[in-house]
Write a structure and sequence with these properties.
two-stranded antiparallel ribbon
């Protein structure tokens, strides 16, 4: 009913609202009347019943409607209250009752943390008001013109968002402090609500187990011909080297064709490697034919009748993917100038669906159904709570912003506004505001130009809703990881730590083994031991003991690393670089040369003494391949390459900067003092089973969503810019910038004067969608089809895309935990 232009449908919808209100009113009166039969609600107890949650929902959902109807003008506010009826499902899900229980259980902690969060909020808002109200940047000064305005922006900062960037020096320091410390304090109550809700929901459904994952029985495969079995085994990489190489070739060809499809969307590269694409279509066609012939041998499609097996395969998911990727090519070739040929650009995007073929070999997308069944009960309750909050907050934002004409925004011609546009244009219907509310509920605020009513609603959205709405995403992510681990059989035995491989096994085998003698004699042996003692100290009862020279050298080396990192930073500041002098041989260059000398000496000593180091497995070659060996080499090698190129006259000043930036790698040498990144190889090995599936799924979601955004948004007039001489809206029969269906059509009339700012090609779209999947939305004014993709990403896409990162963090914690346990066990043994 919020959509204009529906004609007689508005009367029908209004009549339906009237009947619904009449029905719910009658139900409410009957419930109140019958409540007297319950002894608990007799006399004054009836007032208790009337004040119960569900009865209050009934009153709030119908009373405003009747009051506005008596005023002969049903208001937007009253209609919005009708949406409260969705809370009637609370009787079956008990989601918000659980939410109330969480608040009661954590009332003490919530009160303290909420009070602390409010103090932090007001404190930083007040200081930023004083530091930024006189900011020379007009936008900054406008958003900090009063303390209430400052509180709005600071609220977003504390929620993890930083929509403004042109702060003063003091403001930048404060924003840095907010990012490092204050955000964590402010997020405690939000995290408590979300975690408490999820915990209670899981406890509530423990007695109702989720659906078990059971594999569907495959039909038996008997009486097959040799040709069918040979075809099946060949395309699935079974039985021979040729079959395995063919499977690998298909994987590589999928990657190549997807890359070609992306590059061909760039202007001027429409025919790039078209011959390779044509050859690929022939190969995929042949592969499809072989799969069709061998369908009878595939347990998934097996039948006593070969024709039935082939029909099953033809109607299968992967068959449809194959056909969508190759049939349009043949139609365009066979029917030049046809509708298919005219829309070839869109059909090219179907080629990207070839990525889904990889799902057959590395299950990822196909496991989502298993996740839904595994976490069905939790998802139903958490999904209802999240969906209800989304709908209610969307209704509130629609009510307060649909008439907000105080905040000016850029033109949105797709939404019917070219001049004097305001936030009301974005929120003119309930549906148009839905994706914007969803984006805010993911914790992102690309729009900040709200009036005070909108800011009031968003305050409660940040405090109460973001943590709860994120729960379904977290449930999906954890369920997916659990499914992948169970299907891949990922286990860690007690005798083998997570991430162990040949290096870890060999390192344990060398325990108590003496270093091998040097082939150059005992004198070199002694020098190697002395170098090892200087660099790493000596182990005495599990404690590293250093000589004075070793301790001083270690301290100086740490200081040199820190000084080098600071030098890289300071050299990038133009004012400092100008004072020092940017000609060759300046103070920075001299410092760099001496640093490289000491770093090179350290690297040489470590290579020399590696034969006496168990961490290098008593081998200089092994040391050069370890994390520390690679970092040590990267810290000096760019300087030598730069020196050689500069002496030959093949290096300009701008090119030299590339090599100088590599010096920042020296910060990784601090790893020798605080273990962190060197454990990443263990982390990868501990989680590579899950990463295979989740990485493929993330890639499919990224590229698939990018393809949809490119198709739907590449000609969106909201993202179109034209030369000042081109009218925005045409007059007298001539067309203006926003009147054309596409930017290409605009350029046909006004050559070179029309351009799209975003989604111009697939590489550009991939960049934007990568930002979206990271939880940041740089643009939001999509077409209705783009809004559907946006809603999908808000609901599930971001969570699924983030699983690989979450898996790495979990494995990193597990590996570090195992290391600490091993250290404790060693200490206990020594005691």
């Amino acid at each position: 009913d919020t959509v204009s232009g529906l004609g007689s449908w508005h009367f029908f919808l209004g009549f339906l609202q009237f009947i619904s209100a009449l029905f719910f009113t009658a139900e409410y009166l009957l419930l109140m009347y019958s409540a007297r039969n319950d002894q608990r609600y007799r006399g004054m107890g009836l007032l208790t019943y009337a004040c119960s949650f569900l009865r209050l929902v009934d009153v709030l959902s119908i009373a405003p409607y009747w009051l506005s109807l008596m005023a002969m003008s049903p208001s937007l506010f009253a209609k919005a209250f009708l949406l409260l009826r969705i809370l009637r499902f609370e009787k079956y899900s008990r989601a918000f009752t659980t939410f109330d229980d969480v608040i009661r259980e954590h009332a003490g902690v919530l009160a303290i943390t909420l009070f602390s969060a409010i103090l932090v909020w007001i404190f930083f808002a007040s200081i930023l008001y004083f530091t930024e109200r006189g900011n020379p940047d007009e936008e900054m000064a406008y958003n900090y013109r009063t303390i209430p305005d400052s509180m709005w922006i600071t609220l977003l900062n504390l929620s993890g968002e930083c929509p403004l960037g042109h702060y003063s020096v003091v403001g930048k320091v404060l924003i840095g402090v907010i990012g490092l410390f204050a955000t964590a304090i402010f997020g405690v109550p939000i995290g408590l609500l979300g975690a408490g809700f999820e915990e209670m929901v899981e406890e509530a459904i423990e007695d109702t187990p989720d659906e078990e994952r059971t594999a569907l029985p495959h039909a038996s495969v008997t009486g097959l011909g040799a040709t069918e079995r040979a075809c099946y085994e060949f395309v699935n990489g079974i039985g021979s080297k040729a079959a395995r190489w063919f499977e690998i070739f298909i994987y590589l060809l999928i990657g190549v064709t997807v890359t070609i499809g992306i590059v061909q969307t760039v202007e001027g590269h429409e025919t790039w490697l078209s011959s390779v694409e044509s050859l690929a279509v022939v190969v995929f066609t042949a592969e499809y034919a072989i799969r069709l012939v061998g369908a009878g041998a595939d347990p998934e499609f097996a039948s006593s009748n070969g024709f039935v097996s082939r029909v099953r395969f033809f109607l299968s998911f992967y068959s449809v993917i194959d056909l969508l990727a190759i049939v349009p090519y043949y139609l365009a070739v066979a029917l030049p100038g046809s509708w298919v040929d005219d829309h070839d650009g869109y059909f090219r995007m179907l080629r990207l669906m070839r990525l889904l073929k990889l799902d057959k070999h590395v299950p990822s997308i196909s496991l989502i159904d298993d996740v839904a069944r595994l976490k069905r009960n939790v998802l139903m309750v958490a999904g209802y709570a999240a969906g209800t909050l989304w709908i209610l907050f969307n209704a509130a934002m629609y009510v307060v912003e649909s008439d907000d004409n105080s905040q000016e925004i850029d033109p949105l011609p797709l939404y019917g506004c070219v001049d004097n546009c305001t936030m009301a244009v974005r929120f003119k219907t309930f549906f148009s505001s839905f994706p914007l509310t969803g984006i805010h509920l993911t914790g992102d605020f690309p729009l900040i130009e709200y009036g005070w009513p909108g800011r009031f609603v968003l305050f409660f959205m940040v405090i109460a809703a973001v943590g709860v709405v994120s729960i379904p995403s977290g449930v999906i992510a954890s369920g997916f990881a659990e499914i992948v681990q169970s299907k891949s059989g990922v286990q860690t035995s007690s005798s083998k730590a997570a991430g162990d491989d040949w290096y870890d096994i060999r390192w344990k085998e060398l325990e108590g083994v003496e270093p091998p003698p040097s082939r150059f004699g005992p004198r070199v042996d002694a020098l190697q031991f002395k170098a090892k003692e200087y660099l790493d100290g000596t182990q005495v009862d599990g404690v590293v003991v250093r000589t004075k020279a070793s301790a001083v050298g270690r301290l100086l080396f740490v200081s040199l690393i820190v000084a080098n990192v600071l030098a890289v930073i300071l050299e990038s500041i133009p004012e400092i670089d100008y004072i020092v002098g940017n000609e060759r041989g300046n103070a920075f260059d001299a410092f760099e040369a001496w640093s490289v000398f000491f770093f090179s000496l350290d690297y040489a000593l470590r290579l020399f003494s590696a034969q006496k180091s168990r961490d290098a497995l008593y081998s200089p070659w092994v040391y050069s391949q370890t994390f520390f060996g690679i970092v040590d080499l990267l810290s000096i090698l760019p300087w030598y390459i730069e020196a050689v190129l500069a002496s030959s006259g093949k290096l300009s000043g701008d090119e030299a900067r590339v090599f100088r930036v590599f010096r920042i790698f020296r910060i990784l040498q601090l790893e020798d003092f605080v273990v962190a990144f060197s454990r990443l190889d263990n982390v990868y090995r501990a989680s590579k089973g899950v990463l295979k599936a989740t990485g493929l799924m993330a890639l499919i979601i990224w590229i698939g969503s990018s393809a949809l955004f490119f198709i739907f948004e590449s000609d969106n007039p909201n993202f179109r810019e034209c030369d000042g001489s081109v009218p925005l809206i045409g007059e007298g029969g001539s067309l203006g910038c926003y009147d054309f269906e596409s930017t290409a059509a605009c350029n046909a009339v006004y050559p070179g004067m029309c351009s799209q700012t975003v989604f111009t090609n697939m590489p550009s779209t991939l960049f934007y969608v990568a930002v979206f999947l990271g939880g940041e939305w740089g643009v939001v004014d999509f077409t209705w089809r783009g809004k559907i993709v946006c809603i999908f990403l808000c609901v599930a896409g971001i969570a699924l895309y983030s699983i690989p990162v979450g898996t790495l963090f979990d494995s990193f914690g597990a590996v570090i935990g195992l290391v600490e346990e091993e250290d404790e066990e060693e200490d206990d043994e020594e005691k």
